[in-house]
Design brief:
- The protein has a domain of 237 residues: Rossmann fold (3-Layer(aba) Sandwich).
- Helix content is 34%, strand content 20%.
- Helix 1 packs across helix 6, helix 3 packs parallel to helix 4 and helix 5 runs parallel beside helix 7.
- The longest helix has 22 residues.
- The chain starts with a strand and ends in a 15-residue tail after the last helix.
- Bound molecules: nicotinamide-adenine-dinucleotide.
Length: 351
């Protein structure tokens, strides 16, 4: 089996590649990425990409179809992956997260790829506090990022047929350790704040609901999607990925971190305007379709994993919100240096 992981050099990618290498030791694993965050490693004992058979640097908007020859599975993680960047670079976000994702699927289908796995997001539910949202609930994408995921899903699902399975995984917000850690994700931010400043600064009033999933469990869900048969969920499937038990309010996350790390203060911004991005999500369908791939990590074990991982990496940077572990800071730095244009294309053109 040959698996192409597009967008493999971000936060999720290294964890996925490690999982796939263990799960499919004989498989040919190929990575394709623009490399925007390739240098943002934390505590890695080795470059994550050495587990691949091949790493290609390139822009997903210009992925040459010859790269899909002989490929059985495409996992598409490539994206402008958060709201602040998405709002600032809306056109690029739609071009990468939506147009390129659909074009990649079309090229893959034509090349004879039989499974396309797309990393979508539960943020498509937007403002959804009354009851848990299911896959058939109304969507309310509030940001360019969330809109790009809705638009992509809508075009991808009808592309599925007997020979081309499409699985859109609507992931909860990720957390947990990765060789390319992101600290712009809520739980990761809280653990970093607790360890380095003895303080958790909650930007909102703490009331928004935010379901979470450990990045290792995301990798297992992708593994399930790779092997999924059309008889299990249909040729084209959209499914929420996370666990019902892990629908938490942001303030509960802060309290859980403070309970695990002694001497930590929590500062909640009671004057913050209400954060409309608040959703509770039902993961019943995922439970039904993928009983052997349910999340293993919970809030407590993930906080422990992160505390341990950050301490082992010697992470002490109290100014981490200014660091390269926030995706927007890296993009801004590239822009300042003139290396990235308004469309978020690298000026030295790796594709
Ligand atoms: N992290 C989360 O909480 C979360 C939750 C739900 C869904 N997702 C989705 O999972 C996927 C992976 O998320 P992540 O946290 O690893 O994001 P990330 O930002 O860490 O990684 C994204 C990767 O895509 C690459 N990329 C961006 N633009 C590209 C382009 N034009 N051409 C080629 N590569 C490009 C980047 O270089 C990076 O390596 C994304 O699609 C994201 O939307 C993530």
């Amino acid at each position: 089996m040959t698996i192409l992981v597009v967008g493999n050099m971000g936060y999720v990618g290294p964890v996925l590649v490690q999982h796939l290498r263990q799960a499919y030791p004989q498989a040919v694993l190929i990575g394709y990425d623009a490399g925007l965050f390739a240098h943002c490693l934390l505590g890695a004992v080795a470059l994550p990409e050495i587990m691949l058979d091949r790493q290609i640097f390139g822009d997903v908007r210009h992925l040459d179809k010859t790269m899909l020859e002989g490929v059985d599975v495409v996992v598409n993680l490539a994206a402008i992956s958060n709201d602040p960047i998405g709002n600032r670079f809306e056109d690029a976000t739609l071009a990468i997260n939506y147009t390129a994702a659909v074009e990649l699927a079309a090229k893959a289908k034509q090349a004879g790829v039989h499974s396309y796995v797309f990393a979508s997001s539960c943020s498509v539910y937007g403002c959804a506090e009354e009851g848990a949202k299911t896959e058939s609930s109304t969507l309310d994408p509030l940001t360019a990022y969330a809109r790009s995921k809705v638009m992509a899903e809508k075009k991808l699902i009808p592309m599925a047929d007997e020979r081309f399975t499409v699985t859109c995984l609507r992931f909860a917000t990720a957390c947990g350790m990765s060789d390319r850690l992101r600290l712009d994700l809520v739980l990761n931010d809280f653990v970093a704040g607790a360890l380095t400043q003895k303080k958790i600064v909650v930007m909102s009033d703490g009331t928004p609901w935010r379901p979470l999933i450990n990045v290792k469990d995301m990798a297992r869900a992708i593994d399930w999607a790779i092997g999924r048969k059309a008889t299990n969920g249909g040729k084209g499937l959209v499914v929420n990925v996370g666990s019902n038990e892990w629908n938490c309010q942001v303030k509960d996350l802060a309290h859980a971190v403070a309970a695990a790390i002694p001497g930590v203060d929590i500062s909640i911004n009671t004057n913050a305007p209400p954060d409309k991005r608040s959703y509770r999500v039902s993961y019943d369908l995922f439970k039904e379709l993928a009983p052997g791939f349910q999340p293993r990590f919970d809030l407590k074990s993930t906080i422990l994993e992160m505390t341990d991982g950050l301490q082992k990496a010697g992470f002490q940077n109290a100014a981490y919100r200014e660091s390269q572990f926030m995706r927007l800071n890296v993009i801004n730095k590239f822009r300042e240096q003139g290396l990235l244009d308004e469309k978020l294309r690298l000026s030295f053109g790796n594709g």
